[in-house]
Amino acid sequence: MRTLYIDLQEGFNNDTVIILVNGEEIFRKDGVQTKLLLGFSETLSVPVSTGEVELKIQVPSRSLDDEFKFTIQKNLYVGISITDLGIETIVTDAPFMYQ
Amino acid sequence: MNQEYPEGGQAQYNPDPELGPIPGPLPGPFPGPIPWPIPGPIPDRPFPIPFPPDWFRCLRLGPVSGRYQGEMCKPYPGRYKLDLRVDIDLRYPNSPVMNRISGDIYQLYRFGLPGRLGFSWSVYRESWIVDNPVVTWSRCKVTITGDVRYWKGIHLNTTVRIEIPWSTFSPVGPADVTFSVVGGVSSTQYSCPRQSDCSRSMGLEVDVCASVNTAPLLPSYNTHWHNTRPADLPQRTLNIEESYREAGVCVTIDPAHTVIDDSASQFTSWSPSELHDAMEVHYSQFSGAWPKWHMWGLLAGTFDSPSVGGIMFDAAAMYGGAGKPPERQGFAVFRNHSWFNNLVAGTPANQDQAWAMRHYLYTWVHEAGHAFNLLHSWNKSRPDSLSWMNYDWRYDQRNGADSFWNNFRFRFDDEELIHIRHGDRASVIMGGDPWASGGHLETPEGAMTQAIENAPIEFLLRSKSFFGFMEPVDVELRLRNLLPDVPLDVDTRMNPEFGGVVLYIQRPDGRLLEYAPVMCKLADPMVRTLKPASPDLVQGEDRYSESVFLGFGAYGFYFDIPGEYLVRAVYQGAGDVEIISNIHRIRIGAPVTQEEDREAQDFFKPEVGLSLYLKGSQSPFLEKGMQVLESIARKRGDSLIGAKIASIVASSVADNFFRIQDPMKAKLIKTHSSDPKLALELTSPALKLFHREKVRELNLLYHGLVRERAQCHQAAGQAEEAKKEVAVLRKDLAALGVNAPILDEIKAFELSL
């Protein structure tokens, strides 16, 4: 088993966010707000099996949704931000750090 | 023709002393070898005069850039002070030149006392910047001109001309500064001796949690320790002081560090609120006057979110901060963050240790940068900025792995340097504008006025800290003589209607407004003598208070939405006295019931506001407003809102009212006869409430109500009742610690009834 870490980062402004991993809802929250001081809002983690993982992000307050597929061999870190272009992700194998 | 070389003299070479530009700047800081700037072409002269005979003139020591400060010379000598920042040549190694000029203007006050040293204090007025200075170098001076841009307020187009001379082996300066209004004849001049090569100076107090109190406490990093760096990166040792010195700020770190015991058994990590609380307890400067050029840094263990290596916690809660203004006074670095696992004191033995120290330095400088009101680079639409304020991983995501550290030169970007060095004072200084607010852009002129030293008079603004929704907001303004041995005559007309006091109100949405009274009054000053605060003084004789209604003014209701407000007042006394009050916090509550919420619809109307402002009115034009007030007074007579409104309604009921009913006849006739019994009936619940509550902040209102009721009692032929109520008032106020002179005054009033 590996762990998928998901950070809700920039661009969230009192939004409702729903996250599904492999079809299962793992997160739902209203009022998600990016802390401008740090550049993130929430950090969550979910255990996943190695192999392909499907990540769906829905932001109904903005009528946005998107899905991403990753192949996981080791722990993976995904940063999700809302930009002018919609939902964007940063994927890395090192933890995100903030200051 | 150079007059220093008379014709026929031995040295006939007459160089133009003003020929420029001068090669340079000369390197600094000194001492060091001084290269000779050759002033113009070398004449073809035989030995022994290979150089012009005046080669020794105007050998400039050091850069011109830096901070200068001095007083006004014309038209009002000594009335104003200018803090000037010049940024046109290299002032310090690795310190980029921003080619800007800026300044802060202060008004100087002096309070002379015969036979003794007077008082002086300065009041900050405003800041300005020259974005595109024109710089002309000469051999013995530099001339800088440009258009002045003020950060706030309305100004006529203004230009500035600055001349900074130098002579051999003398410090550069003073800067002679002339402001001229374009198209006008007025100009102001200052003479400003040089103070520093930095644009700003700041103090930093650092405290440390016991759990992480091991070296290195503060960072020190040689820029060549880690191999991932620009190939041409200058090698130097950077710590917090040096990093900010390169940015143009001279930072002095207090060598004393308080060790905070964080060993409580269930304590594991810090929240923003806890960090702010720790700052309030341990920061030695916290309780002093703000804003100021000072900040607090805490080396702590772990933040609530372990991924956070540092935080400037002193910002609004919505941004992730503690939410307690004034902001930007402190920050924290979390030593237990994984970034610092390999942190060692001294020279690192490997690249991992070098990485850790580099990141340690980075975190300290970055968090202090937030306290200067800097946002992250990408939040300023500069995601590719190679700045202390960017995240390396964010930059790398856009530009490739390791690209940030391969290109970062350990500096702020140009816009950030311009902000730090030349920004509007309020938006840079700690405890000034809220973080990320931009609020200074909307600030009324004078609102950020800040007294710098202590004046001889205290101007206090206070009230209850909480007002119910729709409750009329009154504040107490108090003048107090702080001198131990000199009585002071002051104009005690403090209502803003007379123009001597200006009030500023910051609303919950952050907007800063100047309170505008409905009417302006022109009157003789009401001068009172405040006795000196000597040990044998009867307390109360050194002060004077007045209650001022702020709820409604020329532009409507000022406290009509629930939330936190900040209020400040400026007193402009006779002569040349300006005293700034404290900043006072008021919270306005939300509607408690649905009915109250519905009442707001009728309450927040101009006719109600004006009725409150006028302390009631029997004019038919305000009849609807008065009906709303009377309804509230009767329904809520046993509440503070009801009590206050009842007092206002009763005030108009108890008086005759005259008006011109027929405009064709233009004759005043009485349309309302004084009804003291109705006024007494309306305010009877209010009297009981004030007597029952006995709250110090309501003293002035209680006192005022009883006096009004006493007059009503007298008018109704009930003088004995009046005496009883005044006696009870005196007893209640004595129990609340009201000063003897006031109690004596009340006693005298009682006896007069």
Description:
- The complex is a heterodimer of chains A (99) and B (753).
- With 99 residues, chain A is mainly beta.
- Chain A has one domain (2-92): Domain of unknown function DUF5300 (Immunoglobulin-like, Sandwich).
- In chain A, 0% of the residues lie in helices and 67% in strands.
- In chain A, strands 4-1-7-8 form a 4-stranded mixed beta sheet, with no helix packed on it. Chain A has a 4-stranded antiparallel beta sheet with strand order 3-2-5-6, with no helix packed on it.
- Chain A is globular.
- Chain A starts with a strand and ends in a 7-residue tail after the last strand.
- The model of chain A has no long low-confidence stretch (mean pLDDT 92).
- Chain B is an alpha+beta fold.
- Chain B has 4 domains: 66-196, no CATH class; 200-428, Collagenase (Catalytic Domain) (3-Layer(aba) Sandwich); 455-588, Immunoglobulin-like (Sandwich); 615-752.
- Chain B is 23% helix and 26% strand.
- In chain B, the strands form 8 sheets. Chain B has an 8-stranded antiparallel barrel with strand order 1-2-3-4-6-7-8-9.
- In chain B, β24 (501-506) and β25 (512-514) form a beta hairpin.
- In chain B, α10 packs across α11 (640-653), α13 runs antiparallel to α14 and α14 packs antiparallel against α15.
- The longest helix of chain B has 21 residues, at 351-371.
- Chain B is globular.
- The termini of chain B are far apart.
- Chains A and B meet through loops of A and β17, α3 and α4 of B.
SSE layout:
The complex is a heterodimer of chains A (99) and B (753).
Chain A (H helix, E strand, L loop, with lengths): L1 E7 L4 E9 L2 E10 L8 E7 L2 E9 L4 E9 L3 E8 L2 E7 L7
Parallel strand pairs in A: 1-7
Antiparallel strand pairs in A: 1-4, 2-3, 2-5, 5-6, 7-8
Chain B lengths: L65 E9 L5 E8 L12 E14 L2 E15 L3 E4 L3 E10 L7 E8 L9 E7 L5 E6 L1 E3 L3 E10 L11 E2 L14 E2 L1 H8 L1 E5 L5 E2 L11 H11 L11 E7 L9 E2 L18 E5 L16 H21 L20 H8 L3 H5 L6 H9 L2 H4 L21 E2 L5 E6 L3 E2 L6 E8 L6 E4 L9 E6 L5 E3 L12 E4 L12 E7 L2 E2 L2 E2 L5 E11 L3 E4 L3 E5 L5 H10 L2 H8 L9 H13 L4 H14 L3 E4 L7 E5 L3 H18 L5 H17 L3 H17 L4 H13 L1
Helix pairs in contact in B: 9-10, 10-11, 11-12, 12-13, 13-14, 14-15
